[in-house]
Design goal:
With 359 residues, the protein is an all-alpha fold. It is built from 16 helices and no strands.
Length: 359
């Protein structure tokens, strides 16, 4: 049964995405904001080529658009935006069905992050990445036909994003392994440390892989990846672009390659919401380290949540190396989609433990 907050989530997000998309009609990019969204939109409308012939990344996304505009009476970009938001809202609502109602309400608010809405309003393939991850999450929670459907999702994701299926496959393996280990935190720390070590030592392999093919490694001196520069760039990706850069771009247009005035406003509030979430997590985690929450219950992640954790971490590591921790806001949107749920659940679990302790 659809709840009132689900309908509210749908109509608020739908309206926000549609308003931005309609505002792009005045731009000289066929109703898009330009860049990748313009490129994909033209490919979708090109009757002289099929999605199979599409050489660049995002074949599945181009196929999706071609089918959509085949049945749509209007070849306008906002039709694509509407379809993408319907997909996004549907998978989020379905994914949160098994959650406690109060927790689900907070997560619905978090999943209205304006940077995610901005990504949807640009008509980008990242929405299909959201959908793929959410479907994998639901499959793992319900434990039905798991291997077969997860394999199909990995294949689909490979045709949405270069090495996307491989990233999901690695995330699934790590999620399964760490879900079985008794000391889960130690296992996560060990695997993460090994991943950093491999990245620091395997520069030639990384430069030749699909994830990093668009840009050579430039971390450290003489193209050498150093631990300090890697850490700085990881933090840059985690906390960027930030509300301050959004304000700068609003007035001076000197921060983002692709944006608009409305987009700058969305990025400002989206980054601010993310900073609040991260600050809340850091504060509570700091309290636990200071033994103020020593009697709180141990927080353990199940496999669906571990999948989101590992995919988000691999995303951070990928763009830390490939783009020096910068990159488009749509890349941050994928991270927000994966980790916002985990942060909210962590805060709820610690809050519940503290309330039980004081009663």
């Amino acid at each position: 049964m659809i709840k009132f907050e689900d309908l509210l989530f749908f109509f608020i997000g739908f309206s926000a995405a549609l308003v931005v998309s309609l505002g792009h009609l005045s731009l000289p990019f066929e109703g898009t904001v330009g860049s990748d969204s313009y490129f994909y939109f033209l490919k979708m409308l090109d009757d002289n080529s099929s999605c199979i012939d599409h050489e660049a990344s995002g074949k599945a996304f181009v196929c999706f658009g071609k089918v959509l505009f085949l049945i749509s009476p209007i070849d306008q970009h906002f039709i694509l935006v509407c379809a993408l938001y319907v997909i996004y809202a549907t998978i989020v609502i379905c994914m949160l069905k098994s959650f406690e109602r109060n927790k689900a309400k907070v997560m619905l608010l978090v999943y209205l992050n304006p940077i995610i809405i901005w990504t949807i309003s640009r008509g980008l393939k990242e929405v299909l990445i959201f959908a793929s991850l959410a479907v994998a999450f639901i499959i793992l929670e319900r434990k039905k036909y798991t291997l077969f459907w997860l394999f199909l999702i990995c294949i689909l994701l490979e045709y949405i994003k270069p090495s996307g299926g491989l990233m999901l496959l690695i995330s699934l393996f790590f999620a399964y392994f760490t879900s079985k280990i008794r000391n889960q935190k130690l296992a996560i720390l060990a695997i993460s440390s090994c991943m950093v070590f491999v990245i620091l030592r395997a520069q030639e392999f990384l430069q030749g892989s699909a994830i990093f093919m668009h840009r050579s490694l430039t971390l450290g001196q003489d193209n050498a990846v150093s631990l300090i520069s890697f850490g700085k760039n990881a933090i840059r990706f985690l906390l960027g672009p930030g509300p301050i850069r959004a304000v700068e771009n609003f007035f001076y247009s000197n921060s983002f390659l692709v944006s608009s005035k409305v987009g700058d406003i969305y990025i400002f509030f989206g980054a601010l919401l993310w900073w609040i979430l991260v600050a809340g997590f850091a504060f509570i985690f700091g309290l636990k380290l200071l033994n103020m929450g020593s009697n709180t219950s141990h927080t353990r992640l199940d496999m669906p949540r571990l999948l989101f954790f590992w995919y988000g971490l691999i995303y951070i590591f990928s763009y830390t190396v490939a783009y020096d921790g910068t990159g488009d806001t749509r890349h941050r949107a994928v991270l927000y989609f994966c980790w916002s749920m985990l942060i909210v659940e962590y805060i709820f679990s610690i809050r519940k433990s503290f309330s039980l302790k004081t009663t």
